[in-house]
Amino acid sequence: MKIMVINDYAFVEGGAGKVAIESAIGLAETGNDVTFFSAVGPVCDSLKKSKIKNIICLGQQDILSNKNKISSALSGIKNKAAINNLKALFNDWRPDIVHVHGVSKALSWALINYCSREKIPVVYTLHDFGLLCPNMGLYDFKNHRQCEYYKSNTYIKCLFTNCDKRSYAQKLWRWVRFSYTKNVLKIRNKISGYVAVSVFVSDFFKNYLPKQSKLQIIYNPVVSSSENDVGQQFGFKFNNKNIPTFLFIGRLSTEKGIELLLDAIKEVNAKLVIIGEGELYKHCLAISKKLGENKVKVLKWQEEENKIRFIQNSIAIILPSLVMETAGIALLEAKKQGIAAIVADTGAFREFIKDNEDGIFFNTGSKDSLVCAMEKIIKDPQYAVLMGRNAKNNFKSYRSSIECHINDLMRFYINLIGAK
């Protein structure tokens, strides 16, 4: 099968990029003719070393990095260079199906419109809420609360609500882009099939997608290879002489709650390791410098083997997101390794964690509640041992292996191509 995978970045910038890259590699490994199409480089080593026949990276900047704000704003609505590259490619190589993971940060939604005009089935993975919300998070960052304007045609209320985490000017541009995408391009009608990365996502979106669209639950792949039962090692690693280490993995941005976590770690006798990149990376480094690396250690994205080592050496992973997450790849990676989790009590986290069985919920956005959850584990490391073992057992119920992921994708592709 000829498959095109589209994503803004040719490297792991966040969860969507990780899934896009790993699924593209997996599809190529099973003998498919795969093209990976992206805007922002560099191309990561895993793509370079894969069996993917054609890797296209336009060498562009993403919207936020482009210093030419006018050019950035226009390309964010319609990236003409990307569309022209697609046209040239389709003259020589025409895919059977196009799978889109992320286009909002560089490539633009107009690519989906073009593929639809070419009568090529388009699959879109619902990694976020970009189809329902201009700031893509259903969250009012200025007033620190969930937003419900997606529920009805409240365009004017949305327009005059300053909810963006950067500025109202940014919100206005995002509102224009969202309105153009929804009402002019009618992009939801141009997508043949949607992939929901959790039951939560499927239930959330099913009333907001066109009736003719197909919606399929396919869990994100967890490709870590290590199978060590680290739960049995906790008694040695976290005895009374050792300070426990908590771990955060994810994009370093406001919605991920990293600032909340940095405030909380100051109040407990524990270490924090941060793995990720994003607009708050320098802020995290500054806090690390102030508190010392023995308290807060900040690392960029790690190769799989190194990342797994950090997971195995932590007493628990903490995901303090302010927004409703659609899934949680790092959460599943930790479960596979037998590591407990402390998570905000919202979104898909409630699907993947059983409170006080394989993790602990805390009140979303509450530092005091987060500190309380951390203290439970610090005071009783064996509690983390038990939850970690439960997490490893519970992980088996998810179809999260790369093999299951690729098989589910192929069945969905074939179904959509047959319908088309």
Rg on CA atoms, Å: 21 Å
Class by alpha and beta content? alpha/beta
Strand % is 15-25%
The order of strands across the largest sheet is: 3-2-1-4-5-8-9
Mean pLDDT: 93
- Helix content class: 40-55%
- Number of domains in the coordinates? 2
Distance separating the two termini:
15 Å
Explain what you see.
The protein is α/β, with parallel strands linked by helices and 420 residues long. It folds into two domains: 2-127 and 192-221 and 401-419, Rossmann fold (3-Layer(aba) Sandwich); 230-395, Glycogen Phosphorylase B (Rossmann fold, 3-Layer(aba) Sandwich). It is built from 17 helices and 15 strands. It starts with a strand and ends with a helix. Residues 226-236 have low confidence and may be disordered.
